[in-house]
Design brief:
With 368 residues, this protein is an alpha/beta fold. The chain has one domain: Luciferase-like domain (TIM Barrel), CATH 3.20.20.30. It is 46% helix and 14% strand. Strands 3-2-1-13-10-9-8-5-4 form a 9-stranded parallel sheet. The relative contact order is 0.14. Pfam families: Bac_luciferase. InterPro entries: Bact_Lucif_Oxidored, LLM_FMN-dep_put, Luciferase-like_dom, Luciferase-like_sf. Keywords: Monooxygenase, Oxidoreductase.
Length: 368
């Protein structure tokens, strides 16, 4: 099972000091956080994609390429790549380049985004969000797997004898997660292709998450990719920890109460009860995270949101120390004990390459 962090790249005023970081400081902080994630033994760093203030992650492949040059083992991912407003050809080529630079330590999470104005900024109509996601990914899927593509659709100009360059590393496309909060059509899309389904459940109650993942698993089996419990599932989460749970609540409360995404809504206690947000001791985070399995079954990737709401970099780095030293080692051990042998691990470039080679050997044996 993979454990990691994802960032939404918000530039938010620290309510305890009144200081707002500059965009340059926030970008450099995200890099430092990614390097710290590898240092403490996490598996994944993922960044979102946004094209509006107060966010700075408008070019994920640029940032991930920079981080790739400074890391050795960390899997570099997006927590959203806007499949609706990005050109599939550009996605195909950008992430293939990143694959080569990072030695395969790359995967992608497709999403529609939740900022309405982004669509017209890139010449699209938000009312076509689902059709765009379906058509654009159908093209991207082919661009990574076919050397020459002839294609015609509704939302972009046709392609004739087109080859995306460079080709994916080792002829293996980056593994794709389809991220969704509320759209069953995206769960269906992930199942159809046999891709991963990432339910970013940070604002949603457990029952909703359970329904979405169950739909994806059922449809994954329907399309013949394996048993329902072998489908590839990822979850989001939010945590803030101190040795003493009362200290954690006291320290995090002003950030929760004043953050744009929380402020004016439910109380910290009510929100924590209704969603995966866990503010407390490391043991409380361990217990809460292990309970996710009760709703979604065995799953392959757990990402935590930790650098949001104006939290200073020093505090985020302290949180990563706790996560890497006290929480993730226990979660690895406990989840491994519970996982049946037939449930796959999270896909990596190496595992996908091995599967491709095995398929090639089997096809050669059949031909002979």
């Amino acid at each position: 099972m993979q454990f990691g962090i994802f960032s939404v790249s918000d530039v938010t005023t620290d309510p305890t000091t009144g200081r707002t970081p500059t965009e340059a400081e926030r970008i450099q902080a995200m890099v430092r956080i990614a390097l710290k994630a590898e240092e403490v033994g996490l598996d994944v760093f993922a960044t979102g994609e946004h094209h509006n203030p107060p966010f700075v992650a408008s070019s994920p492949t640029t940032m991930l390429g920079y981080i790739a040059a400074q890391t050795k083992d960390l899997v570099l991912s997006t927590s959203t790549t806007l499949i609706t407003t990005n050109d599939p050809v550009k996605i195909a080529e950008d992430f293939a380049v990143l694959q080569h630079l990072a030695g395969g330590r790359v995967d992608v999470m497709m999403g529609r985004g939740n900022t309405g104005p982004v669509y017209p900024w890139f010449g699209q109509d938000i009312r076509q969000g689902i059709p765009l996601a379906i058509e654009n990914y159908a093209l991207l899927h082919r661009l990574w797997r076919e050397d020459v593509v002839d294609w015609e659709g509704k939302f972009r100009t046709p392609l004739q004898s087109f080859t995306a360059t460079p080709r994916p590393l080792d002829g293996v496309a980056p593994f794709v997660w389809h991220g969704s909060i509320r759209s069953p059509e995206i769960a269906e899309q992930a199942a159809y292709y046999g891709d991963g389904f990432f339910h970013n459940n940070i604002f949603w109650p457990a029952e909703h998450t359970k329904r979405m993942v169950r739909l994806y698993r059922q449809r994954y089996e329907h399309y013949g990719h394996g048993k329902a419990d072998q489908a590839i599932v990822g979850l989001g989460g939010q945590v803030f920890m101190r040795k003493n749970s009362q200290d954690a609540v006291r320290e995090f409360r002003p950030y929760f109460d004043n953050a744009p995404v929380y402020g004016g809504g439910p109380s910290l206690e009510d929100f924590s009860q209704a969603t995966p947000l866990t503010v407390g001791s490391p043991q409380q985070v361990i217990d809460r995270t292990l309970s996710f399995r009760e709703n979604v079954g065995d799953y392959q990737r757990q990402l935590f949101l930790m650098d949001h709401a104006g939290l200073p970099l020093k505090t985020v780095l302290e949180q990563l120390d706790i996560l890497g030293e006290e929480v993730v080692p226990v979660l690895r051990e406990e989840f491994a004990k519970l996982k049946p042998a037939h449930v796959p691990d999270a896909p990596t470039h190496q595992s996908l390459l091995a599967a491709k080679r095995q398929d090639g050997e089997e096809q050669q044996e059949v031909a002979e």
